[in-house]
Amino acid sequence: MRDEYRFTGLPLADIRPGTSVLVSGPTHDGARSLSMQMLAGGYDEGAIIVTTNKRASRMAEDCQRFGIDVRDDRTAILDCVGDDDPDVPARVLPVSGPSDLTGIGMRFSDVYREFKTTDIDRVRTGLCSVSTLLSFGDLRTVSRFTHTLVGRIDKVDGLGVFVVDPSGHDEQAINTLAQFCSGRIEVRDRDGRTELRTRGLADQPREWTPFDAFP
Amino acid sequence: MILCVDQSEADREATRAALDSTYEVETTASLSDARSVLTERPVECLVTEYDLPDGTGLELIRAARNDAPDAACILFTDTPLDDIDTAAFGDVVAEYLSKDDPDAREELAELVEHALLFRNQTAYPLPDDEDARVAALERYATDPESLGDSIDRLTELAVALFDLDAAAVGLVDAHEQRFLSCFGISFDPIDREETVCTYALLEEGVTVIEDTSDDPRFEDNEGLQSADIRFYASAPVTTPEGHAIGTFCVYDDEPRSLSERDRELLSLLADEVMEQLTLRRRLRERGGGNDA
Q1: What is the DSSP string of A136-153?
Q2: Chain B residues bordering chain A (beta-carbon distance below 8 Å)
């Protein structure tokens, strides 16, 4: 039995390896913060983060701000934006753009395998964000990509966090993508307080529960 | 069947050897030969090198997405990822596994096993009970001829009852929807990623899509457009064990709604189809196992 993924400082119970969740909410109201905090694991864990709309250097800064120990032997940023900054402390892997879902998926498989050869076999994967992929690709392609990546994360006992901002997308599109994941975490802002609630995940808060978006 | 494509005979045979104790394996050396196999036979999984004598593995995977949309596609190659231009193939989606590693073929076998078990390269979500559902379907749908006109009468009644253009009863198997009856419309088998019923199967009870052109899942669906379908509603055909194996669908060329009462009636029609399938199955079993 593999150890479950733990979340420090968040009102979330441990999550079983192989699980992927869709985190949905307005980006500025904490969905991104929650996702980044969920990607911060122990010193023996790796992180693979797909950035679709933020430069790799900014993404690395965000990672550090939210508690991810960014090191180039255990943190990979799959960069769909294009960033020539050579000083990013993470391993930055180029992808031609957010419509290159094939490139993202293959980079993921390859870097995961590389991590594994250095004995990092617990990996948290973040996709920030699915919204960009939906803006650049059709729902069917994004669906196949999501299904494939969720399957891969399941196979390697990883943790997947897929961030989506539902505004600007049809609810049916979001629901369809949620169906590929094990569960969904919704995020909202209520009078300056960020709250989350979960669906489809065992032993997690189902009612709106506050969390700290700026730890 | 698993199709392995590699121009190196030694590599091809090593890949075959890693897989053929468990699966039926076909091999080819070129893109064109692989394409012939794809058009002629059902391929569940495609394992291809990147460099092929007459093209690339990504070109082949793009073709496979057309001929076998649900197939798991794996680029199994000694070409490093940095040397592969995925930009022009961003929409094909495939797994990547480097062939260089000494354990590569063990890893490949694991990847293939997982991909076939969970079918996670489909472009649509699968019901939680997918395996049991498909197994149930096979038990009930062995002999559609025996249904005679019974289902045709129901689709004709549905069109009159709801004052719509067309109705159909289709069973959704692992990869396709096949129709037991169509009235006012005619359908060949439809790939699962192309049919609305794929999504309806995931919902409880009756599904109503008031305007298919206003739903991101179907707005670009050419099959619906060429059949002039704008309105869709269906009730699941559900076995006594609770597995949805098909749908009773009604269609119209204008967006519209469906009243609560009509939803109940549509469910009754679907239940009647299940009753017919159940009775035929019982008859077959009583008949001394001729079909077994």
Answers
A1: HS-HHHHHHHHHHHHHHH
A2: 58, 75, 81, 84-87, 89-98, 107, 110-111, 114-115, 118, 120-125, 193, 199, 202, 215-217, 220
